[in-house]
Amino acid sequence: MKEKLSKNITKQNGITLIALVITIIVLLILAGVSIAMLTGQNGILTQAQNASTQTEIAEAKEKAQMDIMAWQSERLENGQDATLND
Predict the structure, then answer these.
(1) What is the pLDDT of residues 1-42, one digit of tens each?
(2) Which residues, including other chains, have CB under 8 Å from residue 68's CB and lie 6 or more apart?
(3) DSSP labels for 2-60?
(4) Which of 15, 45, 55, 82 could form an SS bridge with 75, CB 3.0 to 4.6 Å?
(5) Whole-model pTM?
């Protein structure tokens, strides 16, 4: 009876070396994919920077359009011609 117990105890080794190596390889692949998605040409950081630049350009265009409309309304209030030549 004691011999059977000792055989059962020795068979339970836990995580094998192969399972550990496979787990490490999978984690390395996931880390590589994550880093590539963050820093690549179409990565999240690059897209965020492009979005920021596009927002600044849109804000500048909107400010210029508002300034033009304010100038035109001021000219119209004074009875002057409010057309832009260029």
Answers:
(1) 556 655 555 555 667 888 999 999 999 999 999 998 888 888
(2) 84
(3) HHHHHHHHHH---S-HHHHHHHHHHHHHHHHHHHHHHHSTT-HHHHHHHHHHHHHHHHH
(4) 82
(5) 0.55
